[in-house]
Amino acid sequence: MSPEALLEADRLAVRVGHRWLCCEFSLSLRAGECLVLLGPNGAGKTTLLHTLAGLRPPTVGRVALAGRDLSTWPAGELARQRGLLVQQQPDYFAASVLETVLVGRHPHLGRWRWEGPEDIALARGALAQVGLEGFEGRQVLSLSGGERQRVAIAALLTQAPTLFLLDEPTNHLDLHYQIAILDLFQALAREGRGVVMVLHDINLAARYADRVILLDGVGGVLAGRRAEVLQAEPLSRAFGHPLRQIEVAGRAHFIPD
Length: 257
Hints:
27% strand; alpha/beta; four-stranded antiparallel β-sheet; 33% helix
């Protein structure tokens, strides 16, 4: 395992039941980089993301965070180092937006310690970063899907991990907030964090990814730098439809053929 890598997969393969979601591959992500998981519906992107997060063991191979095998990290310490945004945000109880965002501070608090002024300031700052300044007293059950998604992102920002793992972070967001949120995580990566995210939009992946893992839905995987993976031929095979690559203002875009 490379000591310079923030996140590293070594000969990783994942199987669910009798189905292989991805065959063995290796990849490293350094601080300052963004990794995008791409593939058709049902290809196993969420399962792979959860494996990279340490929520399920790999079938084959190893995953390491900061040079340490994920299985050796104590749960509390791991929660301070990596944060996960899940696809859907369950709200079983009424709570204010501020209370919900402060959940992100729990890994940093002692067993009997309550949130203090610094924690509250972090939460308020995170809400401002996602365009929800002034929403602190609103009830989460009263929010739209897009607002609730941004609350979840604010909670993750309040957690302040070194590594962000995001499962479809653009869920429920309109175009303005899709770009704003992805710009925000790109900026956090450039400041020295690591970002791994599941995206469905190939062109957003082309815009934000430094590295890409492409799953084809039948166990095949292609992992590497953006320019190596985001090519019309492997994308067409993975998504089951011919795609054409065009260049606009020096940036690759992919359109249905």
